[in-house]
Amino acid sequence: MEFPTIPEASTYLNLSLASPSNQETTCENVVFPHSNFHTNSTSMQAAKMHNEIPTTMNMLTPYENLVMARRFDKTAVDVTNFFSAYWAASIANVGLRFLARKQKCALLTALVATLKAEVAKLHRQLKQSNRQIEALEKKNRDYAKLVEVLQTRVSRRNI
């Protein structure tokens, strides 16, 4: 016998001490740990297990199910649900940190590319400036030779 399909909203935690096989067969909005969540059905073998604990869908870990099997008080349920929500928030926080790091890495990669382009541009400008300096030094040497030649001619004329 198959249980009715389980709606995703408004699931509740059934903490009765009776095993699911002793309960009514119409268990709407109850999710058993061995449920097949993809097809929303529960097998007869899973429903007949004596230590079966109905739990809220996707909220409790197997370890928490063992703890819940020993404790059925409201405090245990509240603590378990608190930790389930806390762990989900922690995982979301880690995901957000990874996303922030990824964005920071992308930003730094873009900044490195920009700086490399600027360094290449400045290197080209430096080479061009060095060529201009060499050309000016050559002209200066040529002018110095011309001045020397002119001075020797003038000194020869004055003699």
**H/E series:** HHH
Query: What's the total count of β strands?
Result: 0
Low-confidence stretches: 1-18, 22-57
For the largest beta-sheet, the strand count, sense and barrel status come to: none
C-alpha Rg, in Å?
Answer: 42 Å
The chain-level structural class is mainly alpha
Distance between the termini: 133 Å
Q: How much strand content do the residues show?
A: under 5%
- Number of helical regions: 3
pLDDT averaged residue by residue? 71
Helix residue percentage? 55-70%
Which of globular, elongated, flat, extended, rod-shaped describes the shape? rod-shaped
Coiled coil: 112-153
Keywords: Coiled coil
List the helices and strands and how they pair.
Blueprint: H1 44-47, H2 62-70, H3 74-158
Coiled coil: 112-153
Keywords: Coiled coil
Give an account of the 3D structure.
The relative contact order is 0.07. The radius of gyration is 42 Å and the shape is rod-shaped. It has a domain at 1-69. The N and C termini lie far apart (133 Å). The chain is built from 3 helices and no strands. The longest helix has 85 residues, at 74-158. The model is unreliable at 1-18 and 22-57 (pLDDT under 50). By secondary structure, it is mainly alpha-helical.
Summarize the entry for a quick read.
This protein has helices spanning 44-47, 62-70, 74-158. The protein has 159 residues and is mostly helical.
